[in-house]
Design goal:
The complex is a heterodimer of chains A (150) and B (164). Chain A contains three helices and four strands; from the N terminus they run βαβββαα. Chain A is of the alpha+beta class and 150 residues long. Chain B is mainly alpha-helical and 164 residues long. Chain B has two domains: 72 residues, 434 Repressor (Amino-terminal Domain) (Orthogonal Bundle); 63 residues, no CATH class. Chain B has a two-stranded antiparallel ribbon. In chain B, helix 3 packs across helix 4. The radius of gyration of chain B is 30 Å and the shape is elongated. Classes of the chains: A alpha+beta (150), B mainly alpha (164). The interface between A and B is large, with 44 and 33 residues. Strand 2 of chain A pairs antiparallel with strand 3 of chain B. Chain A: This is Preprotein translocase subunit SecB.
């Protein structure tokens, strides 16, 4: 008999804390003068959990590079945040192998990334990354540390 | 007399200056710790007259004698900057660096750059790279309480495929 895979009840999930670890934008006037630069993004994500505390932690870092032909290739911003979530009875999400189902990590990862996307956008006004919006990525791309051009 | 003084070499003059400085320091420490010359003489198994001669200045102290005196008094006569001082200096440098950056931001030499305020204890490392100042806070240390999720790259892919 096939054991039913636990399903996530989204009403049991809540964000408990968002902690910035690094917020840094280099805003040299030279960078502001560059017309239509392209941007590349490097993402790093580590999903973690604490079963006893019913807690999930997503460590998410984004670094932004500005490029302009062969003239410029510089890392101009780094954002690194820890997102903490609470899921009532996290044990309910253990599968038959005793592992927490990956769906909850995908949900938390997507929530964290979209939140960080908003944070970066609101912090980037009047800086060299003002018009650069983090791309929409899939959970898979997040896991792979997608590098996207904008 | 003036001629004699002018004949003293720079090296000898520096030696005499150091010797008087050491004598003054020892006299100060004896007073501070309420140790008489007689007591110090007893501790060092020397004659009181010898201690008196040392304190009058001009004695060429050996390293061994200075160490013995330090131990007898219970406080170093001098300190060579060591690791602790270097750490203090490093922390001072961080403060100075932060102040410079803040000033530059204030003067709009660097505009709209974000620097988080972390307390000294929280700063586990400080790197200065192309992207500015990167402070790693104590939250990284909280990692110990969390276990990494046992995920494979294909896990999310499969879910996403199923959803779409």
């Amino acid at each position: 008999m096939k054991i039913k895979k636990p399903k996530i009840d989204i009403s049991k999930l809540s964000v408990t804390q968002i902690i910035p670890k690094t917020k840094s934008i280099v805003n040299d006037p030279v960078l502001m003068d560059i017309k239509k630069p392209t941007a590349s993004f490097q993402l790093e994500m580590t999903p973690m959990f604490n079963l006893a505390e019913d807690a999930i932690k997503i460590e998410l870092s984004v670094s932004i590079d500005l490029n302009k032909g062969k003239k410029l290739h510089a890392q101009v911003a780094v954002f690194s945040y820890d997102f903490y979530y609470q899921y009532n009875n996290l044990k309910d999400l253990l599968d038959e192998e005793g592992e927490i189902v990956s769906e909850i990590f995908l949900t938390c990862s997507n929530l964290s990334y979209s939140t960080l996307r908003g944070i970066i956008y609101s912090n980037s006004a009047k800086t060299c990354i003002e018009n650069i919006l983090l791309p929409i990525v899939t959970g898979t791309q997040l896991m792979e540390g997608a590098v996207k051009s904008h | 007399m003036e001629q004699l003084r002018s004949e003293i070499s720079v090296e000898d003059k520096a030696l005499i200056d150091d010797s008087f400085a050491l004598s003054n320091r020892i006299a100060y420490l004896l007073k501070k710790h309420k140790i008489s010359q007689k007591n110090l003489a007893q501790k060092l198994q020397k004659r009181e007259s010898e201690i008196s001669k040392w304190l009058s200045g001009g004695h060429n102290f050996t390293q061994q004698t200075l160490t013995k005196i330090s131990l007898a008094i219970g406080e170093p006569i001098y300190q060579i900057p060591g690791a602790e001082v270097q750490i203090e200096k490093a922390i001072d440098s961080i403060h100075i660096f932060k102040a410079i950056i803040s000033k530059l931001v204030e003067l709009k030499k660097i505009s709209h750059t974000h620097f988080e305020n972390y307390s000294e204890k929280e700063v586990s490392s400080l790197c200065v790279g192309a992207s500015g100042v990167i402070c790693k806070s104590a939250t990284e240390q909280e990692k110990a309480n969390f276990s990494p999720a046992n995920l494979h790259k294909s896990d999310f892919k499969n879910i996403e495929k199923a959803i779409s």
